[in-house]
Amino acid sequence: MKCDYLIVGAGFAGSVLAERIASQLNKKVIIVEKRKHIAGNAYDEYDEYGILVHRYGPHIFHTNSKEVFDYLSQFTEWIPYEHKVLAKIGDEYYPIPINRITLNKLYNLDLKTDEEVAAFYEKVRERRYPIKNSEDIIVNQVGLDLFEKFFRHYTKKQWNLEPRELSPSVCGRIPVRTNDDCRYFTDKYQFMPKEGYTKIFEKMLSHKNIEIVLNTDYKKVVNEIKYDKMIYTGPIDYFFDYKYGRLSYRSINFIYKNFKVESYQPVSVVNYVEPGTDFTRVTEYKKITSQDSDFTTVSFEYSVKDGDPYYPIITDSNMELFKKYNQEANKIDNLILCGRLAEFKYYDMHHVIARSLKIFELLSKNLI
């Protein structure tokens, strides 16, 4: 087997780069994917009840980048969708990110303006300086009570670490609002692919210059393939056979259940922020895909240590270890790293697409 580019992984990072290299540079690409399907964690399919489900948890497309939106629009039509998330405390549901409605309902207040909400935060916040971890960044914004109610236990379930053990960037990704905007994202472009994500990948990878090898660990075939450059999107520690030790990732177990009801919960995603439940959140998929059915399928997410790596655990010790691996990678001239696992970065979907397009731009100019 021979190609110009060997790409490891058929998720967004690998597939965007494969499509660009094949279609724009007219180069031969071989993608090797260890799973039995393309699309990585964005993979979706219809279950036995006809509900389009995301097999690796909800993937919500949102971006402020016209470049990212226009790129994906080559491969899909869109349906409008603005994501809303509620946190369940007791029998009540509260908007997340925390906003004016959350505060008024939780504390029985009557805050009417952004200024009044900002004054409330100012009164309850606990000044932390310097900001060293995820507890600091939240308590510094909204104080201890809101931190305990909405962040602490959820974060512990998600990461099996206290927020004070995690980088500020982990909880800092979630904004705190003074208005009554209940949308989870405020990006300019918020849509869902009309036919689902897998269809995007099928169209993206249909080019004659792309060959796909599924259900195969690249290490089993890499010596049989002649290539000029490798683009690697898998875990960086695995690439180097864990020579410095293993990086820490969190995985997720999904339990899918179908109910013969039109609606299971008020919105597509409900976060279970109290310590009494083992699962972190419940997703009702037809609320995301706008399907009409007498049935509904939901997934319960349980965050676990072992399994497919989903989320890099951003701690000081992990970042030190990553630096060692990254330095090794930089010594390999024909190796390019891209994506959440290879770069050990908590990228969202649109970030990965933007990053892949940027890497392609550098490649096309022979800068890498």
The CATH class of the domain at 5-38 and 205-247 and 313-364: Alpha Beta
Order of helices and strands: EHEEEEHEEEHHHHEHEHEHEEEHEEHEH
Determine the CATH topology of the domain at 5-38 and 205-247 and 313-364: Rossmann fold
Number of helical regions: 12
Mean pLDDT: 97
> Percent of residues in helical segments?
25-40%
Query: Largest sheet, if any?
Result: 7 strands, mixed
Task: Strand order, main sheet: write it out.
Answer: 8-7-13-14-15-12-16
Poorly predicted regions are none
Q: What is the CA-atom radius of gyration, in angstroms?
A: 22 Å
Name of the CATH homologous superfamily of the domain at 5-38 and 205-247 and 313-364 = NAD(P)-binding Rossmann-like Domain
Structural class: alpha/beta
Beta-strand content bin: 15-25%
In one word, what is the shape? globular
The number of distinct β-strands equals: 17
Give the oligomer, counting copies of the same chain as homo and different chains as hetero.
Answer: single chain
Question: What CATH architecture of the domain at 5-38 and 205-247 and 313-364 would you give?
Answer: 3-Layer(aba) Sandwich
